[in-house]
Amino acid sequence: MAHRVAVIGGDGIGPEVVAEALKVVRAAGVEVDTTDFDLGGARYLRDGTVLPDETLEELRGYDAILLGAVGTPDVPPGVIERGLLLKMRFALDQYINQRPFTDPAAGIDMVVIRENTEGTYAGEGGFLRQGTPHEVATQGSVNTRMGVERCVRYAFDLAMTRRKHLTLVHKTNVLTFSGDLWQRTFDEVAAEYPEVTTAYNHVDAACIYFVQDPQRYDVIVTDNLFGDILTDLGGAVSGGIGLASSGNMDPTRQAPSMFEPVHGSAPDIAGQQKADPLAAILSATLMLDLLGEEAAAAKIRTACATVVAGRDGRPETRPTPEIGDAVVAAL
Ligand code: IPM
Ligand code: MN
Predict the structure, then answer these.
(1) What is the pTM of this model?
(2) Atom 4, ligand 1: which residue's CA is nearest?
(3) Does 279 sit in the ligand 1 pocket, CB within 6 Å?
(4) In whole angstroms, what separates CA 254 from the centre of its chain?
(5) Which amino acids are annotated catalytic?
(6) Per-position DSSP letters for 131-162, written without gaps between them
(7) Which atom of ligand 1 is nearest to the CA of 81?
(8) What's the CA angle centered on 24, arms 21 and 28, to 5 degrees?
(9) What's the half-sphere exposure (Cβ side, CA atoms, 13 Å) at 31?
(10) What is the pLDDT of residues 198-215, one digit of tens each?
(11) What is the structure's pLDDT at 1?
């Protein structure tokens, strides 16, 4: 039976890269029945719509959501980010943000598990005396035992399927409340996984290791904001942000998960078929894993690796659809 996929092409290069992802998925023999949802910055500028509750309810009926990129320069910061992306992540309880990074040439093979529903992203805080010289702005970090524990458990389970090494990244020397909850939870869950070796890095030190010695990592688990920052760096050290994929997942499968490249809408090159679709294609492989199509996912990942190896470190010059075709040819 075909998988029902909601497609949000979004803004800028989003629709261009999503088209290639769907082309490759179908070429790998997976049947998908897609429905396009017109959402993003352009839609907001046209009629003020971001993500109505009815649309969110409609999305619940799909097996997965594939998203290209959302955001346009003329929309104020936060409108699309909070109103669309974060609303979807939170409402559908996509508590795991899984971001793999591989660069066979450099010996990098790591996965960042970013907590995706809490931390500073939760929206706690506000203004006092806004716009006056005595203005106060607070933005708290929300960390629940349940939220931290389910994320940490997912990371341990994932490590068991890989090289069995898990690193907690936080800032426990300064964030003594949230850091303590994360460290205690991590240590308690670790006792249930005696085969997994563990490590702890402060986030600032992890930034050095990401650049100087990323080979040390297998699975990393971290909070929402640290994970956001660290995964841009992960992309930068493993072939560039054009290869960085992600899955916003509810592993319990109560609600659909949402798959999107880590990169943004790149308005400067939109409509020119200059974007690298590999991040979107690789994001679709994460979707296939969750849909039970692991064999097709593995085949596509190998094909993407062949295309990347063929570049031999040189910048890609082919137009977006030709890169998609090259992946199909390598399948
Ligand atoms: C990401 C993005 C988002 C985030 C923004 C656009 C809300 O940077 O997916 O990494 O901060 O999570
Ligand atoms: Mn980010």
Answers:
(1) 0.97
(2) 228
(3) no
(4) 19
(5) 121, 171, 204, 228, 232
(6) TSTT-EEEE--B--HHHHHHHHHHHHHHHHTT
(7) 7
(8) 140
(9) 3
(10) 999 999 999 999 999 999
(11) 85
